[in-house]
Amino acid sequence: MKLRVVVLGAGFGGLELCSILSETIGDQLDLTIIDQNDTFYFGFSKLDVMFGHKTPDAVKIPYSSIKKQGVRFCKDTITAIDPVTRTVTTQAGSYEADVLVVALGADYDISATPGLVEHGNEYYSFQGAEKLREVIPGFTKGHAIVGVCGAPFKCPPAPSEAALMLHDHLSGAGIRDACTISLVMPFGSPIPPSPDSSKALLKAFEERDIRFIPQHKIASLREGTAILDDGTEMPFDLFLGIPKHVTPDVVLQSGLTENGWVPVDRASLSTKFPNVYAIGDVTSVGTPKAGVFAEGAAKTAAAAIIAAYKGKENGLPYAGAGSCYIEFGKGEVARVDVDFFSGPKPFGIHHGASEALAVDKEYFGSSRKARWFGL
Ligand SMILES: Cc1cc2nc3c(=O)[nH]c(=O)nc-3n(C[C@H](O)[C@H](O)[C@H](O)COP(=O)(O)OP(=O)(O)OC[C@H]3O[C@@H](n4cnc5c(N)ncnc54)[C@H](O)[C@@H]3O)c2cc1C
Prior knowledge:
alpha/beta; 5-stranded parallel β-sheet; 29% helix
């Protein structure tokens, strides 16, 4: 009997899981992966799109390229998940699975920050980044704020990256002196698990005259003014927001969540429902919401699914470790290797910004593109 697997969401986690299951049990696999989009893009490519470094079309990878034994991609929107019967309802039909994997990521609740829609911009959605490539060139003087509206949020270095890349953009346009940049973040330092990465970022902010405002969130916006969570008012001419993150509504309705996210067993990424797994940003597994961690979780879930199918012991608990790249501008990229579970507290090792690490980051993307899409 073939193993019927349905994977919900073809992002970082879903794509890695499909690749492993296809490589390992391909001829015994009957896997359907469902996504509402017909193309994939890396989270970091939104920064390239918003600053005009790449066109939207250049960063989109078509799901039609997926050609893996035992794997079928379906473009469809998931409207209901029943984790008891492992039945999934979509706009076009329904699917039943022996094993269900929820990899639907995190959504944005933009309206949770009053005034963000009317008076600000966000760059975390692809549409938001596309809109900003038209808006940013019109900012020629005044105050720009990069502001986080809630935690947790994806890719903790991304607000710092946006501030540094904005500095580069304005310097390149010869208008940096006419502009000020502030970065508002709810953490005490830019990357809390890595004091060295935080130190390097704070030094870069200081050198570039970027004002870092820690331990605050953006509570609301009105025209030309951001209001912080302590009531402080900050006038702005350009607002680049990181919206509040939430679990996709279809997951909230499924009964899989507790306190807003899906709890999972770290050893296998299984949920409280038999043969239902959850990986990546949709979970509360205890690692940041980042692609590299979604990928690590996919490896663990795949190992557990394969072990159960073959009647063997589970082998590979989720390590909670991964490497994140940090754009410093000027073509240089740093890397932080973060480990969340092996020590008494999370820790990170910093590798300073260099052109060599920019090449590494390129390879990080191209190797996934090759592995997941054969391109
Ligand atoms: C600006 C920015 C920069 C980033 N930089 C990095 C970085 O440098 N390194 C890094 O590791 N991470 C980075 N990230 C984070 C990374 O993109 C995410 O953490 C990662 O994609 C999460 O993987 P996932 O599989 O959990 O979910 P996702 O990759 O978000 O995939 C979820 C999928 O589910 C689909 N979906 C959702 N709801 C439905 C539905 N109802 N029906 C059908 N399909 C649905 C979505 O279309 C999506 O394709 C960045 C993110 C941003 C915004």
